Amino acid sequence: MLNANAEKDVAPKTNAPVMPGSEVACLDSKMRAALRLHDYLVASHWNGHALTGPDVGIRFNSRVGRFIKSYLPRVNWKDNYYYVQAQGYWILDNWQLYSSMRDNRYRDIALRCSEFLLGRQQEDGAWLYPNPEWRGRIATAEG
Description:
The protein has helices at 21-45, 59-71, 84-101, 104-120; strands spanning 127-128, 138-139. It contains 4 helices and 2 strands; from the N terminus they run ααααββ. The protein has 143 residues and is mainly α. The termini are far apart.
């Protein structure tokens, strides 16, 4: 590797791997893809407090319902649920984006979602499931 302060090849003074330009370009394309996904999630599922959407784990919804719903987007399906695990990943992802890009939008999303999630937490540390079919059940961890 050519040291910027020398005219000859010298070993770098770090243990970090040297990344070829093609890998840097790949990371850039991955970051662009991640930002496009983030924009989609904000536009389609972010309600200002949490990511919401249908419960795709229900057999009908995952096999048939999602296709019907995609053809009838104006119908209010009343299935915008939030799940703790998704919120946790959303919060972590937004903090990571804020750390990388220093854009306050990501920090604000992480804070609002954290506040919402903490507001839903029961005194015993658990969360109620949002799906009415599971009324009375609690979650201490999902996944």
